[in-house]
Amino acid sequence: MTETAPRPTLEAVAARAGVSRATVSRVVNGGDGVREPLAERVRRAVEELGYVPNQAARSLVTRRHDAVAVVVAEPETRVFADPFFALQLRGISKELTAHDNQLVLLLTEGRDDHARVGRYLAGGHVDGALVFSLHLDDPLPELIQRAGVPTVFGGRPGWSDGTTDVAYVDSDNRGGAREAVRHLVGLGRTRVAHITGALDQTSAADRLDGYRDVMGDADPELVVRGDFTPAGGERAMRELLDRCPDVDAVFAANDLTASGALRVLRERGRRVPEDVAVIGFDDMLPVAEQTDPPLTTVRQDIEEMGRLMARLLLRDLDRRSGGATPAGVVLPTTLIRRASA
Fold first, then answer.
1. What value does the mean pLDDT of the chain take?
2. What distances in angstroms separate CA 271 from CA 168, 194, 274, 278, one per listed residue?
3. How far apart are alpha carbons 72 and 91 in whole angstroms?
4. Are 338 and 295 in contact (CB under 8 A)?
5. If you average pLDDT over residues 295-319, what whole number do you get?
6. CB 326 within 8 A of CB 167
7. How far apart are CA 203 and CA 321, in angstroms?
């Protein structure tokens, strides 16, 4: 057996730097009141000895765990199949890593998982939570409020509990949808349909509202419910063609839905964009640039949304003593024109 070398201690760092143990503790825990020359000696000793702070002891001093829970209110089969979640998680991870915080990923498959997540958040394991892809009947907001954990939500909150100071990051879903539908109308299309997302999520409801802002007097048969998935897009497109065979344009609630709609249009012998113009939402490059034809879509900066969620939470944690709460932020969208419309 190989003997394991003992871990360097605060006392060893103090001896190497020629300072007190208390001085070393203040430096490694980010405290104030240490002159820069002494602090530099401590940092050099830490590097030379390979000292790693004990997180449990550090938490007692700083009252911080340097860990953030990321709660995705979707089953793992959805999370790992949809590039939207990968982009948002990448943005969150980059921001947390830049501030030396750990990401703890929590997924919810069902009601039992909601209770588990609530218990974990209430247990004091993390400093805060980032929560996205909520559905309107989701119990998570109530569980999180009960846990008392600082939280930033991804997407405009849709619950009606009277809360007005909820921190969130979202895109201009309604404005982006309006721009997409106006573009289709500007192309001379008169039978413009909409395949919605999951309407128990505010992003889908806002995009439907944006469609209706432009097409207020449109035939209600031109709106078909989807669920943000390619299979949902295929099913909705078949239903749409069966009930409205003269449709000449489709605004799909996201790029995955549009990709499914494009497959069905090709199966039915409809040319895109000559017969039916198609626009998506998200501009996820692994999807939008690889459809046939490449997809015109509304771009939202998904990775930046993730980064901003993490940034708002960390900023709130840093100024908690002042009681400040970050406000909701809505990012702009842009229409990206490709060959499908």
1. 87
2. 40, 18, 5, 11
3. 14
4. yes
5. 93
6. yes
7. 33
Tokens of 1: 């057996």
| 0.90 exceeded by pTM | no
User: Nearest-CA neighbor of 167 among 300, 330, 282, 307?
Assistant: 330
The CA-to-CA distance between both ends of the chain, in Å, stands at 68
Q: What is the DSSP letter of 92?
A: H
Three-state DSSP state, 290? coil
Residue pair 120/67 in contact by the 8 Å Cβ criterion? no
Which residues share a beta bridge with 105?
70
Residue with token string 């969620």? 309
In order of 60, 242, 265, 329, 335, the CA distances from 280 in angstroms are: 49, 21, 15, 23, 10
Which DSSP string do the residues of 144-207 spell out, in sequence order?
A: HHHHT--EEEES-----SS----EEEEE-HHHHHHHHHHHHHHTT-SSEEEE---TTSHHHHHH
Exposed e or buried b for every residue in 112-147, given b needs 16+ CB within 10 A? ebbeebbebbeeeebbbbbbbbbeeebebbebbeeb
Model confidence pLDDT, tens digit, residues 66-102: 899 999 988 888 888 899 999 999 999 999 999 889 9
**What would the mean pLDDT of 261-270 be, rounded to a whole number?**
97
The DSSP secondary structure of 204-250, one letter per residue, reads HHHHHHHHHHH-TTS-GGGEE---SSHHHHHHHHHHHHHH-TT--EE
Q: Which two tokens stand for residue 256?
A: 């995955």
CA 255, 268, 192, 336 torsion: positive or negative? positive
> What is the phi/psi pair of residue 26, to 5°?
-65, -40
Nearest Cα residue to 132 out of 314, 306, 316, 320: 306
**For 176-197, how does the pLDDT look when each residue is reduced to its tens digit (9 = 90+)?**
999 999 999 999 999 999 999 9
Residue 241 burial by Cβ neighbours in a 10 Å radius (0-12, 13-18, 19+): buried
Average pLDDT on 113-117 reads 86
Alpha-carbon distance 277 to 338, whole Å? 11
Sign of the dihedral defined by the CA atoms of residues 13, 15, 18, 23, in that order: positive
Residues 6+ apart with CB under 8 A from 317: 64, 127, 128, 150
